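Tutorial handout. Part one gives the primary structure; part two gives the three-dimensional structure as tokens.
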Amino acid sequence: MSTVEKKLEGMGITLPTPAAPVANYVPFVRTGNLIVISGQLCLGLDGKLADAHKGKLGAEITPEIGQQAARLCAINLLAQLKAAVGDLDRVVRCVRLGGFINAVPSFAGLAPVMNGASDLMVEALGDKGRHARSTVGVAELPLDACVEVEGMFEVQ
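Part two.
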């Protein structure tokens, strides 16, 4: 078990089985030392989207629930990353995260929601988890998920 996985275990986090693509795309692409991971939804360990994570921020979803959902997305990113490289200790850096927040047009708290994913990366990877980031509000996400996060990682 990698050092990163031991750290996750100590945080009470078990990496799920990575979600399979549901359309004509792949879950990750490696080019050189970069791994680009397709957007991950806030699926639980069972691979399902909880009802609590369906809907829009600023309507039925609170900012706190949104942060928890973003954290789940980051856990799913790490699961895909492990599938891509086999050992999370091979991560040199989380280069970038992109967050998509399913929100009503007037919801202005996008950045704090996305902090759920950003904070998890730093907790799991330490300084290697510090990254560039974009966060946008969107009108809809697959399965009515409240958050989706994509990522780019440099690996050995």
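Part three, for discussion. The first helix runs from residue 3 to 10. Helices lie at 3-10, 63-85, 110-125.
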